[in-house]
Write a structure and sequence with these properties.
The protein is mainly α. The chain has one domain (4-167): Four Helix Bundle (Hemerythrin (Met), subunit A) (Up-down Bundle), CATH 1.20.120.450. The protein contains six helices and two strands, in the order ααααββαα. It has helices spanning 4-27, 31-35, 45-63, 81-101, 127-151, 161-167, and strands at residues 110-113, 123-126. Strands 1-2 form a two-stranded antiparallel ribbon. The chain is globular, with a radius of gyration of 17 Å.
């Protein structure tokens, strides 16, 4: 049985693979579809993806035991597929480093969340809770993107955990004799 740390690492590898599929799908859409306000959690498909990317950046930066190098670009600029790809490469490189350095003991370490935007109170959150929150956040916005893509007759790049696990060698074929 995999440890919680191994499971978390697997989930973040899976999420990165799924995010690549969404970037590929978004890159194929006409510009008007990318920037159309859909009345969702964030106005456009690009905004939803950028929001989940921003959550990864914010929380992983808090969990890192190292200083994140500054991210390039204008954080207030409207997202484009090109900027999302650049930002995704940056964020995933940082996540890979965090996951490589993360220990089981780190899961109990806490990060401080200040009262303010998105938080009604000051609190110290265990790293494990932050990481599982990010999994939940990612799945929530992936479902939202799926629904919005289906509304415009675009196949969402659904990547199931089992298919990914099989492709990644985590799930083996059974061989009957």
């Amino acid at each position: 049985m995999a440890s919680e740390l191994e499971t978390i690492r697997a989930w973040f590898a899976y999420l990165a693979a799924a995010r690549r599929g969404y970037l590929e799908t978004l890159a194929k859409l006409p510009a008007a579809e990318l920037v159309r306000d859909r009345g969702a959690s964030h106005p456009t498909l690009l905004d939803i993806f950028a929001h989940s990317q921003g959550a990864l950046y914010f929380w992983m930066k808090s969990c890192a035991k190292f200083e994140f190098p500054p991210q390039e670009g204008d954080p207030d600029a409207a997202p484009s597929v090109a900027t999302l790809r650049t930002d995704e490469t940056y964020v995933q490189n940082q996540i890979q480093r965090i996951m490589a350095e993360l220990t089981a003991a780190d899961l109990d370490r806490t990060v401080f969340r200040e009262k303010g935007r998105g938080s009604p109170h000051d609190c110290n959150i265990p790293v494990r809770e932050v990481l599982w929150h990010l999994v939940e956040e990612e799945l929530q916005h992936r479902g939202e993107l799926n629904a919005l893509l289906w509304q415009i007759d675009v196949d969402a790049p659904v990547l199931s955990w089992i298919d990914w696990g099989h492709d990644a060698g985590r799930i083996q074929d059974s061989h009957s004799n």
